[in-house]
Design brief:
312 residues; alpha/beta; five-stranded parallel β-sheet; 11 helices; 15% strand; globular; binds N-carbamoyl-L-aspartate
Amino acid sequence: MWNTRHLLTIDSFSRSGLETILQCASILEPFSGRGNKLDICKGEILAEIFFEPSTRTEKSFQVAMHVLGGDVIIHKDAGSSRDKGENKADTIKTIEQYSDILAIRDHETGAIERYAGIVNVPVINAGDGSNEHPTQALIDMYTIWKRFNTLDSLKVAFVGSLKHYRAAHSLIKIMSKFSNNTVFGISPPGLELPDNFRINGYEDITIDMRNLNDKLAEIKPDVLYVGRVPKEYMQTNDINQCRYEINKKTLQCLPGHSIIMHPLPRVDELHPEIDSHPNVMHFMQVRHGLQTRMAVLALMLGHEKKISEISA
Ligand code: NCD
């Protein structure tokens, strides 16, 4: 499947590993609605350890494990012995004793890899600082694939702070595993993609963000990927330069088949006036979070055969 027991970075996936996720997610999709309960992960426990805020990642992992027939425990620092001064490593080692798999989020780049080194169960990176967010990118990959029926020969434009945007970092890596994709990073100066995430076919488009719509009309992306301005990782000057809004006017500048994606949460960069447009995918991504995370959990816990049995 992928070459480590943990899911820390998209680097550890091959194209065929990603295709396995797509297949498993689509097999599981009909069973992911309300009222379904499978027994693929019966008796197994996922622990979610979040040292940073989360809505979708936390809830979708929780519901995914529930639908797979497993159980979930959730750790947040407030109200835990972390308030008494317990360190993160001891908290993680403690929760490991009750769990079969851990999903961990931390504000520090590389932290999840370090935690994976101190436990004996598989670990999922649920976001490490401004580095990677591999499961969000797998969801985004599934969303793009469902819409275009391919992940090759696509033009994908990312908008915002390419420097800090962890979901984009992981999705850019995914696009590099498929063929003939062109990836643009549209940002104000100083917020370009760090060198370690650059792939063949990547191009910086450094602009004054007030000219965003004109630039989009020129490059005609198949996928426009927008994100929140991650202020918690940014300097004030950079935040001020990185203002933009995707709205009805933006839609008019894009080809009719283009989709707009946003992993949420949004603040003011995606106007609700286009929420119900069929090419605006943010809540579809939320929905696909379930199927994709069900596939990730079932595969990491060794249940590939059980997934193929439900499709038989
Ligand atoms: C993102 C994250 O936490 O990286 N959200 C998510 O997981 N869906 C996006 C963000 O915080 O801006």
